[in-house]
Design goal:
- The chain is mainly α.
- The protein folds into two domains: 53 residues; 73 residues, Up-down Bundle (AhpD-like), CATH 1.20.1290.10.
- It is 81% helix and 0% strand.
- The chain has seven helices and no strands.
- Helix 1 runs parallel beside helix 3, helix 4 runs antiparallel to helix 5 and helix 5 packs across helix 7.
- The longest helix is centred in the last third of the chain and has 23 residues.
Length: 139
C-alpha cells in the first residue's frame, strides 16, 4: 500500500487520537493503528475523528468517572467474551485506580449474569495484570 503524504491537519488529528489512547490505556492498541492506517489510505480522517470524538465524550467524559466507566466497559466486554478489548479496559480501569478487589467484584457479578466463561476470562485477565505488575516491580 502506498500512502499519500499527510497534511498537517492529518498529523495533528492522528496524534490527538493516539494521545487519547495513551492517556486512557498507556499505549495505542494495534487495532487503532490499523484504523489510522486505513483512514490515511482512504482519505477519511474526518470519519475517524468523528468516531474518536464520540468515544471521547462517552468514555473519557462519562459522568460515572474514568474508573467506574472503565469497570462497566470491562464488565460488558468480558460478559460478551470479547477478550482483547476486555483486557484493554481492565488495564484502563486498573490504571484509573480500580483495585484488584473491585475488578474481582466485576468478575463475580459477571458469573451471575454471564456464567463461568465470563468469570474465567476476567480472572485470567486479572492474573495477567498481577503478573505484569509484579514483573515491573522486579525490573
Amino acid at each position: 500500500m502506498s500512502y499519500a503524504a499527510e497534511s498537517p491537519q492529518e498529523v495533528d488529528g492522528f496524534d490527538t487520537i493516539r494521545a487519547r489512547y495513551i492517556e486512557l490505556t498507556g499505549s495505542v492498541p494495534p487495532s487503532i493503528e490499523t484504523r489510522i492506517k486505513v483512514a490515511k489510505e482512504a482519505g477519511r480522517l474526518d470519519a475517524v475523528e468523528s468516531i474518536e470524538e464520540l468515544r471521547q465524550v462517552l468514555i473519557m467524559n462519562n459522568p460515572l468517572g474514568r474508573k467506574v466507566g472503565q469497570l462497566v466497559h470491562f464488565s460488558q466486554l468480558e460478559a460478551l467474551g470479547d477478550a482483547t478489548p476486555a483486557r484493554l479496559h481492565a488495564r484502563s480501569a486498573y490504571k484509573a485506580g480500580a483495585t484488584v478487589s473491585e475488578l474481582v467484584g466485576v468478575a463475580e457479578l459477571s458469573l451471575i449474569t454471564s456464567g463461568m466463561p465470563a468469570y474465567s476470562l476476567a480472572i485470567e485477565i486479572f492474573g495477567e495484570l498481577l503478573e505484569e505488575e509484579s514483573g515491573s516491580k522486579t525490573e
